[in-house]
Amino acid sequence: MIGTQLAERLRGRGDEVWILTRRSPRSEHEIQWDPSRGVQSPRLLEGVDALFNLVGEHLADRPWTKARRKLLVDSRVQATETLLGSLAELDAPPSAYVGVGSLGIFGDRGDAFIDDEDPPGSGFLADLCVAWEQAHLSAEEALGARVSILRMSVVLSPTGGAFPLMVQPFRYVGGWLGNGRQYSPWISIRDCVGGLVHLAQCDRCSGGFNGTVPTPTPNKEWLRALGRVMHRPVVTHAPKWALRGALGELAESLFLASIRAVPRKLLETGYIFTDPDAEEMFRWLLPAFERERERTRGEGRRRRW
Fold first, then answer.
1. What is the pTM of this model?
2. Which of 264, 161, 283, 167 is nearest to 213 (CA)?
3. Range of the domain at 269
4. Helix (H, G, I), strand (E, B) or coil at 188
């Protein structure tokens, strides 16, 4: 979802974009790679200006069993180490390296404001994020690159991710997660992609950056904004005990944790948010989602014919 939108934004600027893919290449600008073995033809990347590393299995797809935890770690840490090993062979490696992380690095901090430079929290997700960021930062030595990391919050997009799952129950009645008082950081796909491009082209950007809107919003508040846009009452909730019972630590770390993060470094380095307000963002996002749904339905009908 993010990679597709990022590639479109870069091409729209006139940039040449190469895609590393695990499947067989379908165009001349795709290069096959294996996260456990490396890039098949790394020399094709000789002289690229910037590398965006978005690799990693989805965090919220399923409960964190022992096997799932290993996959989450390997798909981030080991895959990044393998990628850097391939790129280290280049005579002219990328001078800018942009990785992604997660605001879950901070853990549950209640109502405390969280700055980009605050120390990490504890627990599996925080430990995973620390190891993930360390793998990214090793690109400084491996490639001689300037390294920056966008710590992801919930990315709201009309083409996938969390938003299509949020919309379905809101067609009847809206609700929040847990008590709704926890600060749930979010960012639109437009600002997620904009933030990544900003980190690549801003020479002052290095280290970790909080990827969330400037004004932290409690979970109940920003879901009520969706209810207003959809003209639906927001009167119910998913209780903590049900979320914990179904998803265990995943629910505690991703859905119930309160992370009142602010994007100080993004703002100080000159990034201007496109979608800083939840209700205004939903007024763009919902029609865009409906158009995307109609488009995919139309493609499905053409395929059946």
1. 0.93
2. 264
3. 2-292
4. strand
